[in-house]
Design goal:
Elements: E1 4-7, E2 13-16, H1 19-42
Antiparallel strand pairs: 1-2
Length: 75
């Protein structure tokens, strides 16, 4: 003899050995599955939207790497 397991909205899982309840649970599961596959087929897969980026700035350079003018010689 088989049974049916169902999870309620509160998250609790229950089991029933009543054939009528088992059939009702199975039918409901098939309906949900069919509805889910219809929704998936109707909608394209979600994509990530890119976030707006700041305007590109000139590349940062370190002060030590920038060319410096030669110092005048002391007399």
């Amino acid at each position: 003899m088989g049974g049916a397991y169902a999870q309620g909205t509160d998250g609790a899982v229950t089991m029933s050995t009543d054939p009528a309840k088992a059939a009702a649970v199975e039918n409901h599961a098939q309906e949900l599955k069919a509805r889910q596959s219809k929704e998936t087929a109707a909608k394209p897969a979600p994509t990530h939207k890119s976030t707006p980026k700041a305007k590109a700035k000139a590349p940062a350079t370190h002060k030590s790497s920038a060319a410096k003018p030669a110092k005048p010689a002391k007399s």
